[in-house]
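Q: Structure tokens for this one, please.
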Amino acid sequence: MRILHVEGGRHLYGGAYQVLHLLRGLAARGHENLLACPAGCALAEAAAPVARVYGLPMGGDLDLAMVVRLRRLIRASRPDLIHLHSRIGADVMGGIAARLTGVPVVHTRRVDNPEPRWMVALKYRLFDRVVAISEGIRDVLLAEGLPAETLRVVRSAVDYAAYARPCARASIADRLGAPEDALLIGVVAQLIQRKGHADLIEALPPLLDRYPGLQVLFFGKGPLADTLAAQIDQKGLTGRIRLVGFRDDLAELMPCLDLLVHPAHMEGLGVSLLQAASAGVPIVASRVGGIPEAVRDGENGLLVPPGDITALGAAIETLLTDPARRRALGAGGQTLMAREFSIDAMVEGNLAVYRELPAEGARAKPE
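A: Here is the predicted structure, written as tokens:
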């Protein structure tokens, strides 16, 4: 099967990493991958061994010319199927291009933020199948009127073995600029409002007072970097809460975290949660969206109501005071990831969706 994948993200994390896992899995099974993505993006380089990469201008939701560019590519490359992996214009423009060329199209929905019912009715009729990466996203789409027969759930995956490694505490502490005996809390998320960093900053002062060795690291980039830095400075917490930016060595760093906190207000599933669980790191996260599928309360972490700063602080303190429970939750996370979130399961799940379309007499390929 020849599949054209369209991904509009420019950075190799979150959804783009899921695309890379899928490309590798499909190539290993003998399928031919074509990838349309922004020219020069990180995914383009990483995917080159397993896909024919087409770097295209992708200007976002208002880039109407993307329809023309994708239509031209579809006619030239003649895929059997098109898989649209992101929003940022790739969903709507890709869907229109697929309709114009008559090629079956699958769209993966990775976020749980709501859309108006009228938009769902118009937008999602472009796609033959919609893949939700969690039951939480599925429920949002069903509530917005998407027909159940169009919708499938294929959970995101994690490269379990890459994160399930011992912690090299001395070298990692040095790399992070932290004392070797520090208690390390990590937040791995884009610096955007819905990830809830500001809530955590509000919850931390009493904990930082009680635990002098506690350090909090925000991994990631985003438009709120300056705002969060100002909030940290205003509370006098500079040096105790640090913005350390995007890191490509997370697989080495993650096992040395004592706790991962994810206080998101909205979340489709949360790849960083899968990574932390694979690394044996206990988690405190919001009970929202698809998070309860990745963080089972009492099994690999604790869940709190989104936006509840008091509950967030209490859950963090519960685990900071109990190293044995942290270890038990960390072990529970590794068992959960190996059981339910393997890359093989994700690849086979997507293939099962692809195979539905020809069986139904998919639209004719373009001339």
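A few notes: The radius of gyration is 21 Å. Residues 359-367 have pLDDT under 50 and may be disordered.
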